[in-house]
Amino acid sequence: MSDAKNAAMNDSMYDVVVVGAGAAGLSAALVLGRARRRVAVVDAGTPRNAPAAHMHGFLSRDGMPPAALLEVGRAEVTGYGVELIEGRVDHIEPGFLVHLAGGPALRARRVLVATGLRDELPEIPGVRERWGRDLLHCPYCHAYEVRGEPIGVLGTHPNAVSQALLLQKWSADVVFFPHTLAVTDGERERLAARGVRVIDGIIKRLVVDEDRVRGVELAEGSVVPRSAVFVFPHMLPRDALLTDLGCERDENGWVTTDPSGRTSVPGLWAVGNVADPRAQVITAAGMGSAAAIAIDHDLVNEEVARDVEDYRTAEAKSPASLRPIAHAVSLEEHRA
Predict the structure, then answer these.
(1) Contacting residues for 307 by C-beta, under 8 A, at least 6 apart
(2) Whole-prediction pTM value?
């Protein structure tokens, strides 16, 4: 390859391409931008928490709309020279070439994937329409806002019993609807001991009136009044970009990473909900920051190794017999 072509390719190469501009991706981009790295962030504009009006548990940002956090984050990273690209990454080639759907390919020395996950909701009428409003998932994110109210928990996931037991801290009136979930005698005893009522029967729909959940209707016709309902969704990571590159998975099918987010593929990191379904917004932001620092160290190590090799090559090309003469000449010039 010619020196001119090599220089042109280097000019067009990013130190890091970040895929996903949620809290994890933007936090990583912020740290990398401040580290004077050339960074591009590619985002399709479909954050997981888009239906939620507010986010909670983020120190200094409690109650802030998720969209507002991302707007501030985008402004901050662009202030450090980070490039924001609207689009979807179709696939990534080893090496790395990050191919945009219907667009160009971005060359990157390192790639950080922060594409999150998608929530698979039960096919119960009213669930999808009320998702993120008064049909909720995370107690730590939303239960405080419905504290003391009549709460229902849908038995559509194996973790639903644990969710119901947890929610009793926020309300003394919690009803668990097993629906199609097989609940053991031991689980029923725990629910009863906790003061959680169990109402059996197939769920027909959520009752909605005046743009609010009013209850849970069972197939036999009865309606149990509720003002908030919780569901534990099936969480599916958006990890095709990672698995297509050969990233290892754990026994639950999630891509494995070290504490910094480094995957089993050299040069590839994964942070946020794509790697950890339990990560909240503040957790994901911390994961992005930790990954950015690890990536920068990784790049510096690569650069130092390259610089040492270049230094040794230059030293080897410089005849040893000329170095003392050059030194002597410089001394004579100094005396003159």
Answers:
(1) none
(2) 0.88
Q: Sign of the CA dihedral 321, 325, 328, 334? A: negative
Question: Tens of pLDDT along the chain (336 residues)?
Answer: 334 333 333 458 999 999 999 999 999 999 999 999 999 999 999 888 888 888 999 999 999 999 999 999 999 999 999 999 999 999 999 999 999 999 899 999 999 999 999 999 999 999 999 998 999 999 999 999 999 999 999 999 999 999 999 999 999 999 999 999 999 999 999 999 999 999 999 999 999 999 999 999 999 999 999 999 999 999 999 999 999 999 999 999 999 999 999 999 999 999 999 999 999 999 999 999 999 999 999 999 999 999 999 999 999 988 765 555 445 444 445 454
The residues pairing with 4 across neighbouring beta strands, listed in sequence order, are: none
DSSP lists the bridge partners of residue 209 as 212
Candidates 2.60.40.10, 3.40.980.10, 3.50.50.60, 3.40.50.720; correct CATH number of 122-232? Answer: 3.50.50.60
Is the fold of 3-118+235-308 the same as that of 122-232?
A: yes
